[in-house]
Amino acid sequence: MGKLLIVGTVAFDAIETPFGKTDKILGGAATFIGLAASQFDVDSAIVSVVGEDFPQEYLDLLTDRNIDISALEIVKGGKTFFWKGKYQNDLNSRETLITDLNVLANFNPVVPDDFKDAEVVMLGNLHPSIQLSVINQLKKRPRRIILDTMNFWMDNTWDELQEVIKHIDVLTINDEEARQLTQEYSLVKAAQKIYGMGPKYVVIKKGEHGALLFHKEQIFFAPALPLEEVFDPTGAGDTFAGGFAGYLAASDDSSFNNMKKAVIHGSNLASFSVEKFGTERMLSLEHKEIKDRLHQFKKLTQFDIELQ
Ligand code: AMP
Q1: Looking at ligand 1, which residue's alpha carbon is closest to its atom 6?
Q2: What are phi and psi of 302, to 5 degrees?
């Protein structure tokens, strides 16, 4: 069983979509990553921080799925990170209305001893200095260090983000953010520029239009499954990252071919995440549903063609 170390926000989210709105539900990058990764045969731990206002019931949801939360600090008297977002009618564009860092502003991450030799480290969306501090505490170079980030950190902590990106193997980022990071419109050119910053692999997420994996001259594309129900895209990117990282931690194979499979597993899990508000769908997900949808993925992407 592989070890997966996860860093990212554990949060309260308030979400507004054309289909409804919620007040302060369970969210955060590390939460979505952990829930997705728990579908694989991995030992995972979350390094993060919450305030005293964070309900025990939410912590139990994580431990029930065998996620080690001994490094999830609870700050006495503190308030949990809060994010509020609103989606436009097409669900592809979203506006951040509130980002309250709260306890995240003064967080010093401590990696548990048992996870200092993790095979895979998933640095979820968080302050890049915290992501770097986690890398610096590792006692062995992991097989893969994967990093996810977003425009908020590009806007506010550009230099720190550039620094941490030097130390990673895989950058997962959405198309808009890849363009912001590189000032390139073409995603092929953007990926090449990102290689120059450090990572050997780049995954560009394109929401309902799938995901691209780049490595040297090679490109792989996985579509997103066309869905009947899309309710709330929040956490789809993190669920993708959790599925990607979880699969890689569970399998002892660093080939490009295996990275392609990881992209498919990530896309498959993300397709469930968007069907209900927040983490709701991921919490009710069964193995059989995951397997059935993988079959659908295979069908969607396979074809026979005669080539001369
Ligand atoms: P995604 O939809 O995959 O991009 O991720 C949405 C999740 O990211 C939500 O659950 C938020 O709590 C979390 N989030 C939003 N803004 C930030 C931020 N600036 N840093 C870290 N996590 C964030």
Answers
A1: 235
A2: -100, 140
99 lines ligand 1 (CB under 6 A): yes
Exposed/middle/buried for 265, CB within 10 Å: 0-12, 13-18, 19+? buried
| Residue of 44, 1, 17, 35 lying closest to 241 (CA atoms) | 35
Q: How are beta strands 72-75 and 42-51 bridged, if at all?
A: parallel
Report the Cα–Cα distance between both ends of the chain, in Å, rounded.
44
Tens of pLDDT, residues 186-216: 999 999 999 999 999 999 999 889 999 999 9
Q: Work out the angle at residue 180's Cα, subtended by the Cα atoms of residues 234 and 156, and round it to the nearest 5 degrees.
A: 75
Tell how far the Cα of 303 is from the centroid of ligand 1, in angstroms: 36
Predicted pLDDT of residue 89: 84
Residue 32 has pLDDT above 90, yes or no: yes
What secondary structure, in 3-state letters, does 199-223 show? CCEEEEECHHHCEEEEECCEEEEEC
* Residue 9 beta carbon below 6 angstroms from any ligand 1 atom: yes
Report the relative pairing of strands 2-7 and 11-17 from DSSP bridges: unpaired
CB of 162 within 8 A of CB of 182? Answer: no
For the domain spanning 2-300, the CATH number is: 3.40.1190.20
